[in-house]
């Protein structure tokens, strides 16, 4: 990847985290945040996945697990990015459509969960 693109992606990720924080603090609606992310040229599915990812920071002990839709034909990126049935710290897992040339077309799925005092809370699977 060329350096200019990498720099741009970094900026976008920062903006994304900012939207997620504003969303959490009630300063923007989910709809507004999604609209802003889509302005960066992302598909609705990509924007949705990226926002859901940014809403779950590692500091709050979020983990993620990503897997392949068994019916779909996957791009090489997806095959590299699924977590092989393991839960990992959320910052080590890419949301579907990010760094992925199929841009979520293959319907990769992701689940999130949070640990509080050794208990698993808030486990959700995101699927569309
Ligand atoms: Zn893919
Ligand atoms: Zn995929």
List keywords for this structure.
binds zinc ion, globular, 4-stranded antiparallel sheet, 128 residues
Would you kindly provide a written description of the structure presented here, covering whatever features stand out?
There is one protein chain. The chain is α+β, with helices and mostly antiparallel strands and 128 residues long. The chain has one domain (3-126). The chain is 38% helix and 19% strand. It has 4 helices and 4 strands. It has helices spanning 3-24, 30-38, 44-54, 76-81; strands at 62-67, 88-89, 109-116, 119-126. Strands 2-1-3-4 form a 4-stranded antiparallel β-sheet, with no helix packed on it. Helix 1 runs antiparallel to helix 2 (30-38) and helix 2 crosses helix 3 (44-54). The longest helix has 22 residues, at 3-24. The model has no long low-confidence stretch (mean pLDDT 89). The chain binds zinc ion (2 copies). One zinc ion binds at residues 74-75, 77-78, 100, 102, 106.
The rounded distance between the terminal residues' Cα atoms is 30 Å
Give the spatial strand order of the biggest sheet: 2-1-3-4
Low-confidence stretches: none
Radius of gyration (Å): 15 Å
Tell how many strands the DSSP assignment holds: 4
Helix content: 25-40%
